[in-house]
Amino acid sequence: MTLLFFFSALGAFNGLLLSLYFAVNAKKKVFTNYFLSLLLLVLSVRIAKSVFFYFNSDLSNIFIQIGLSACILIGPFLFLYLKSSVVEGKSSWANHVIPYLTSITILGYFYPYVAHAEIWSRWIVCAIYCQWLIYILLSLGYLKPIIKRIKDKERLKRIDVWHLSIFLGVAFIWLAYAVSAYTSYIVGALSFTFVLYLIVLLLIFRNSNTGSFFQEKEKYKDKEIDQETLLIIDQKLSVIIEKELFLNPNFNLEEAAKELKVTKHILSQYVNEVLGKSFSNLIKEYRIEKAKRLLETEKNYTIESLGYDSGFNSKSTFFTAFKKITGQTPSEYQKAYFK
Predict the structure, then answer these.
(1) Is the pTM value of this prediction over 0.70?
(2) Domain containing 284: what range?
């Protein structure tokens, strides 16, 4: 019994430490690591409640309410973390956090657990777990490229393994709680401990000599581009747009570097550090802008052919990139434009 308490409580404690670690290391990574930090924080709060309730049934009801309330943010923070890791640009985090935080606060005020334990157990907790599951399913959408690589038997990048591990870990914890009525209430806490140690192993893997784990930017640490080179690349980069070099489906970093008369390494570093994106994402954005212009002017061509005319080499790649960058399908964009 002592070992059981130790391992389950250790998960909650280490979760808080990891949450702090990611919060501190979130600099220059926009909200991505903040979302991961907050995800681990709410999971830790939920797990701590489970551990102390399991080993001390006299736990104050206010702690039970806080632990259960934390669950309402697990799904949103998982979703926001994966979305911010995959999609460029600002994340509408407030839409996924504030309404739920407000709702659970109001519910907790008018229906405190101490006086309405049955309502919480029968209705509120069920609603929270359903919401958590919905966000798990929504988050799955941002793993489609990874799933496709697995199906195509392609080698996964380490960041792919990381994202997949985070997703599967949260899904596994949800499942552990969902079936706790048929197993044991403490299974969720033990699952969290297992997931945390997997995260620690991946972090150690991240810090190995074999390269960057999270961001391409790590490759360029302590190798700053001089100001003169920055200005030259900034001026020359417009050549790719003016000559529409991106319309070639096979256009890559090496060809771009030759055209701009810079090294591949310098161009890659510039795109990553100054523009804050990968070279492939930059080219996708150029192609999407071209596609948008074609959608606004060409009504007699099929959507698929416009995708090929924009430099994409397949219909699926075009549709996926367009939806990711604009938030709409090509058809939806065209219909909205001609309204």
Answers:
(1) no
(2) 219-337
